[in-house]
Amino acid sequence: MRPDGDKHGDATERRRSRFRLAAACALSACLGAAPAPAFAFDLFGIHLFGKKAEDDVVDPLSYTLTFEPGTQDGDLAGALEDASVMKADEKRPVSGSLGLLAKARNEREALVAALYAEARYDGVVNVSIAGRPLDEIPLDAQFDRSKPVPVTVSVEPGRRFVLGNVRLTGDAASLMPASYGLIAGGEAGSTKILEAESKMVRSLKEEGRPLARVASREIVADHKSGTLDITLDFAAGPVAGYGDTRVEGTESVDTGFVAYMAGLKPGETYSPQEMDDARERLIALDVFNSVSVREADALDAAGRIPVDVNVSERKHRYFGAGVTYSSTDGGGVEGYWGHRNLFGRAEKLRIEGSISRIGAGTSFGQLNYNAGIMFEKPGVIGPASKFIASVKGNFEHPNAFEKLSVDARAGVRYELTRRQTVSGEVRLEWSRITDSFSPVVPVSHLLASIPLQYVYDGRDNKLDPTRGVRLLVDAEPAHDFFTGASFVKLRGEASAYKALDSENRFVVAGRIAAGTILGAPLAQVPADRRFYSGGGGSVRGYGYQGIGPLDPAGVPTGGLSFAEASAEVRIRINDKFGVVPFVDAGTVSAGTSPNFGTTQFGAGLGIRYLTPLGPLRIDAAVPLNRRPGDPSFGVYAGIGQAF
What we know:
Elements: H1 11-33, E1 40-43, E2 46-50, E3 60-61, E4 63-68, H2 74-83, H3 85-88, E5 94-95, H4 96-117, E6 124-129, E7 132-133, E8 149-156, E9 162-170, H5 190-205, E10 213-222, E11 227-235, E12 242-248, H6 255-262, H7 272-284, E13 288-295, E14 305-313, E15 317-326, E16 330-339, E17 348-358, E18 368-378, E19 385-396, E20 402-415, E21 420-435, E22 438-449, E23 452-457, E24 468-480, E25 486-499, E26 506-518, E27 561-572, E28 577-589, E29 600-609, E30 616-623, E31 634-639
Parallel strand pairs: 4-8, 9-11, 12-14
Antiparallel strand pairs: 1-2, 3-5, 6-7, 6-8, 10-11, 13-14, 15-16, 16-17, 17-18, 18-19, 19-20, 20-21, 21-22, 21-23, 22-24, 23-24, 24-25, 25-26, 26-27, 27-28, 28-29, 29-30, 30-31
């Protein structure tokens, strides 16, 4: 029933508005906490394994749905259809007549919540079953089972409301609603209001007040003027320090270690950002399926706030295999086995091996073989630190050289902040290399070096960023005990991302990189430490190591300097697919400064299949200033964006 439209809005309808907004909040919370469905697999309508939907349903009853969103607005109609639980589950039976009634009521609440999220506070949702309005059907009704029960859902969306008066009372009286997106005449959707509330509570918590909350809210919809008046009352509570960190849910991971890695020191002033950092740090241990870090509901006897950490462990042993392919570099296969919790404190051990250049080499002796064992131990000098060590063996045959090597390294990685990381290692590598400067007799090297790295990562998503900047700086001083050569390898890289619209459908991405090697001539730097460019990770359209100086036989020599640049426009067509036009450029020089007069360019188009784990990538590119011996095109596949 619609409101009568008096000046201040019908009192009954006001109560309905308040109830519906509360219902929208509650429904969102319930949906967010809903358990994941049981795993099953169907292919082309044929059930292969796992439980069918009806296997777990007592007294299964099927229905057909007629859904009428009642609007020509494609975005609104899509939002309503996405919110429809009956539409999503139409092929799944319910549990008897009572189950159908319960589902129909949930449908109405879900659609009301969707209308409120779109600021449609005078919308009406009608549900009928077998031709009878839902509210006229008794709970003990029985429906005809000779065929699926017809259900009709129709929506009258109503008009879009805007915000009217916005008042903050209590401990948030000094906050400015406009700073949180609540502006008279502005967007009035329930999601917008709840987000603003959450941001205001966070602002109070950032003052060190862990018990800050919304004490009460009053939402009044004026149906005559189409405005929504809001009064929010906040209780901030006292400033407090951390109390004990209480851990639940551990099985084989040491409980005390989990509390230590949370890094919330008793007595230090509470910070919501530190709570977020603690959760991210525990997730990064890679031993938990889920991590919850929450402040308690009340202070302890000392006036401090206890912190409750609840975790769910994942399987600690894992194994897997993968494949890669490039039309210019051939295919590859890899396998690995690992343990995520070797000694009970999230120590990682991983053993892996791979074979690559399959199809690019003419014999087994020309394939690349790699094997290694890696170990990590978190928390060695504080929760933000990690000890890393590895031993790897390589027998490689890229275009520029042939190499047999054993590489051992150990070091520490430390998070300065949640976005900044530094690392330092001690590295020792023995190698025997044949290259353009020693094409017949291999040269042996025993290289000791200290790789140092700084990374700033401000991206919003590592596999598919839409905004932010990433900066990387490498420095590696090295000395060769066999040849006596000493040099320093320096490299820097920067990438930036910018979404051109609010829905992140168009994202511009760019990358630049450059490096130089100082202290030794090109021939005295081991071939695997020189710079190369070309291929799927640098300039697409060219072969791996295909850009740069060549010897008289056309073999790449590598260089003492390089520079690269890439630009992409990432266009999301729908929720599953995207296309990416791109241009790459790169140069490698024998001197210590890049020679931009020899820059090679490549351009192409990529396809992205979007998954929750990141996009699957296929890129096709052509060299724009192709030289003799360069491929006419290149095709590359991988996981995640190109950079």
